[in-house]
Every structure is written in structure tokens, then in C-alpha cells.
Amino acid sequence: MVSISLEQVGVSLGRRTVVRNASATFRAGTLAGIVGPNGAGKSTLARAMLALVPHIGRILVDDAEVATMPRAELARRVAYLPQGQTLHWPLTVERLVELGRLPHLAPMSRIGDADGAAIERAIARADIAALRERVATELSGGERARVLLARALAVEAPALIADEPLASLDPGHQIDVMELLHGEARAGALVIAVLHDLTMAARYCDRLVLIDRGTIVADGTPAEVLTPANLKSVYGIDARVELAGDWPTVTALGRSR
Ligand SMILES: Nc1ncnc2c1ncn2[C@@H]1O[C@H](COP(=O)(O)OP(=O)(O)OP(=O)(O)O)[C@@H](O)[C@H]1O
């Protein structure tokens, strides 16, 4: 049962402190959303959990510090869907998804039967079978987003960090992706997703972590975190928050004065 723990984590980029004193523990079986305004530090925090940016404090995957963990081992334990990735190589979709298996392969070894099965499962779960022969650089933004999600799923890691997995997706595919991430968590994975759509985040996430200017300012259930007061102080908006079923829906009414 995987867990990721942050203990007083700070990240500086250049001369700017981008994440300050962040502490939180994320456990298996959870879909956690990281929300907050543009530039708040969400992606940077996600990247720190993958040891892609240096940090102070401690970040643990189970009991091992990410800063000293061999990169392939970390990649096997925590899959990553980066934000808005550009593709440079004209690979077919199938070959691109295959790259998700790299952390499992010994140097110079080839894809085996187990890898092939994981690739097929990822293609099915991301619903991209119809795209498998296409050249990835020729896909639409939404198609590319689902292919990159499939690559991350192909790792079959116990944890997945997805940075804005809904970007470029139409409403139907947004629901598909959130249901998929929710399903992964129900099946025992830890899923952490950076999200901008607060109603989607509230509907599907078990827990939300709200970040403002590098600091975690709220951490709890969607109803606890998405209060009009928090939305006003963090996003600078007046918002109506209504309970729709079990989750709050957020309507931004305007900039608060
Ligand atoms: N390499 C860098 N050097 C200096 N500052 C950086 C660097 N990369 C990002 N930043 C700054 O760090 C802050 C946090 O950026 P980050 O991408 O983590 O925010 P975010 O919450 O994910 O934003 P968004 O919602 O817009 O994607 C921003 O102010 C950004 O300008």
C-alpha cells in the first residue's frame, strides 16, 4: 500500500521560493486533487514529489526519500503525467505508450509479454484503441492528452501523479478521465491530480489540497476546502457553492472587491 509523505517541504526555483513548508500525507486508495490559482506552485509541488526539482524538507514514497531513490525505482513506484507535454518524435501511438514500460526494462532488453499486456490494458483504459496506428505528433490536443495518460497508465505504478489531466479535453472525455482516475484509486492506487476545474475536482476527489502562493492553505474534503471564504481569499473571486448530490459545485460570479 503506497503512500507519499511531505514533511515541511520547500522548493526554490532560481531566486524565488515557490513552495513553502508543505506537509501532507497521501495514502493508497485516494484520489487527491491539488488545486489553486495559476502560479500557486501546484506543478512545482508535483514535480518535487518526483524528484524533478530539488527540495528542502523530506518527501517519502513509503519509507524511502525520493531525493536519494534510484530514478528507475521511483518511476516504477510513481507514474507521472506531465502538464502540456510537447511531442517531438513522430512515433506511433502504440510505440509512445510502450515508453511507459521503460522503468521496468533492464538496459538493452526488449518488451516482454507482461509489458505487452500492460500496454494493452493502458490502451483500453484510456480508450485510445482507435488511435493506436496514428502518428502521435499528428493528434489533436485532446487525443494527445489521452495517449499520454495511457503512457502513464502503462507503468502500472501503485501511485500516479497527473498534472492537469483534463487540459484540452471535451466535457465527455473530462468525465471519462476523472472516472478512470477515480477507478484507479478505488482499485487501490494513490492518484494525485493537479486540477483547475473545481466542480470536477469536487465531484471525483476524496480530498483536496488548496495551494496559495506556495503554501497549503486548506486540506480536507471538497466541501471543507471549497468554501466561499477560501475561494475569495485564494482566487479573489465571489463564488456560489451549492451541494449537488454529495459534492459541491462552484460557480464563479465575478472578481471580489
Ligand atoms: N524555472 C523557474 N524559475 C523561476 N520561477 C519559476 C520556474 N518555474 C516556475 N516558476 C514560478 O514558480 C511559480 C509556481 O509555478 P507552478 O508551475 O508550480 O505553478 P502552478 O500552480 O502549477 O501554475 P499553473 O496553474 O499556471 O500551471 C510561478 O510563479 C512560476 O512563475
TrEMBL record:
Gene3D superfamilies: P-loop containing nucleotide triphosphate hydrolases. SMART domains: AAA. Keywords: ATP-binding, Nucleotide-binding, Translocase, Transport. The keyword Ribonucleoprotein does not apply. This is Iron complex transport system ATP-binding protein. Transmembrane segments: none annotated. Residues 4-238 form the ABC transporter domain. GO terms for molecular function: ATP binding; ATP hydrolysis activity. Belongs to the ABC transporter superfamily. CDD domains: ABC_Iron-Siderophores_B12_Hemin. The keyword Magnesium does not apply. Part of the ABC transporter complex HmuTUV involved in hemin import. Responsible for energy coupling to the transport system. InterPro entries: AAA+_ATPase, ABC_transporter-like_ATP-bd, ABC_transporter-like_CS, P-loop_NTPase. It comes from Sphingomonas leidyi. It holds the Pfam family ABC_tran.
